[in-house]
Amino acid sequence: MSKIRVLVADDSALMRQTLKRIIGDSADLDLVGLARDGDDAIAKARELRPDVISMDINMPKLDGISALQQILQEKICPVVMVSSLTQQGAVTTFECLELGAFDFVGKPDGTVSAHMRGVAEELVAKLKAAASRGIVSRSQRSRPVRQPNPPKAERPARQNTRPTAVAIGISTGGPATLQEVLPQLPPDLSASVFLVQHMPPSFMASFARRLNDNCAMRVVEAAFGMLVEPGVCYVAPGGRHLCVDRKMTGEIVIRTPTTPATMFMPSVNVMMESVLKVYGSGTIGVLMTGIGDDGADQMVAIKQAGGHTIAESEQTAVVFGMPREAIERGGACVVAPSHQVPEEILKAVRRTSLCPPASMNTSRS
Fold first, then answer.
1. Which residues are catalytic?
2. Which residues contact 121 (CB under 8 A, 6 or more apart)?
3. Do the domains spanning 4-133 and 155-354 agree at the CATH topology level?
4. Which CATH fold topology does 155-354 show?
5. Which fold has domain 4-133?
6. What is the spatial distance between Cα 337 and Cα 48, in angstroms, rounded to a whole number?
7. Which of 15, 298, 332, 353 could be stapled to 10 by a disulfide with Cβ–Cβ 3.0 to 4.6 Å?
8. What global pTM score does this model have?
9. Which of these, 132, 134, 137, lies nearest to 29 by C-alpha position?
10. What are the domain boundaries of the chain?
């Protein structure tokens, strides 16, 4: 089996050498070239025709965004962005993802990082996944304009409806996919939405704000003690789990523990397990693109508890890892491409919220 041919583009000589060693240590990757700026990256991409490119964002002459656009326009190969973990770095990275970058890896120490070895496994996995998937086509769907949320008293009454939760787990390829899915959900959705996206902690606040700007429903970064309301999407905070708890008053509140220790923090499995304990069969699990199997076991548990589960199909999944595991374990009631997931969520919410409440294990504080 031939190795995956990788081109590295970074203006720092130290970073180029570090990335060269990381790629050299992988039995599946072969470094075919090093580029020092965007112009050089485009020229070498045209000449060498690599399978995938590791692209720095901040480079002289031509930056990584412009080089990304040209490489994707010419359909040369997929690109994984290497970004600084700053607020501005987050904004620029999300722009790259919306333009068609496969995914990104954050530099632990900023623009020039001496600790890239700490993210070596993640980088190699994403380079391999990108090469396997090829260039990702980002559909440009119209997005509804988010209207200001009405005061509490003006919200439509949701009496005699079953408490319903949509628990969404997503990883590699997730930010761009969510920009296709979440904007299609209405602001008066009769369910609360809980979202876990695997992402560096420093990116989460910017990520939540960007989703909020593009969605009709309100999107917030979840915080400890926050009161859960329908029609709001709660994004797991960076470096903490997203959990819920039902108080003696019946109110449901956010909890953000740092235990249990898991491979991913936040964890889709931990979030879904917590949501299922509070909402029972009123839980709708959604598992989309991502490497690994986080969330697959809890999709099975949600289905077995009488809830509804939706897995993204291989047709659109940037990486068909997490949803495939859920499907193969029998945890998917519905398998659908990403552009159909919003309608599947709406249908499930309508069915679930109108059903009489089943017995639920309601944790209390």
1. 171, 198, 294
2. none
3. yes
4. Rossmann fold (3.40.50)
5. Rossmann fold (3.40.50)
6. 34
7. 15
8. 0.87
9. 132
10. 4-133, 155-354
Phi first, then psi: what are they for 118, rounded to 5°? -70, -20
Q: What is the DSSP track for 24-71?
A: HT-TTEEEEEEESSHHHHHHHHHHH--SEEEEESS-SSS-HHHHHHHH
Q: Is the Cα torsion angle 16, 290, 86, 95 positive or negative in sign?
A: positive
Q: Which of 289, 346, 284, 282 is nearest to 309 (CA)?
A: 284
- Residues contacting residue 21 through CB under 8 Å, at least 6 positions apart: none
Rounded Cα distance between 166 and 186, Å, is 13
- The pair of three-digit structure tokens given for residue 102, joined into one six-digit string: 């496969």
What token pair was written down for 274? 């917590």
Q: b/e per residue, 65-85, with b = 16+ CB within 10 A?
A: bebbbbbbeeebbbbbbbbbb
Residue for token pair 């996919």: 177
Cα gap 196→241, rounded to integer Å: 9
Quote the tokens at residue 103. Answer: 């995914």
**In the chain, what is the straight-line distance between the N-terminal and C-terminal CA atoms, in Å?**
56
- Which of these, 147, 150, 217, lies nearest to 184 by C-alpha position? 217
Whole-number Å distance between alpha carbons of 290 and 317: 8
